[in-house]
Amino acid sequence: ADAADLLPLIYDELGGCGGGRNRIDLTDAVAAAENSPDAFLDFDAALTKLVAEDAAAAEIAKRRVFAGLSVDDVANAMQFSRASAYRHWIYAKAWLTAALGDVENS
Question: Between helices 71-78 and 55-67, what is the axis angle to 10°?
Answer without folding.
Answer: 130
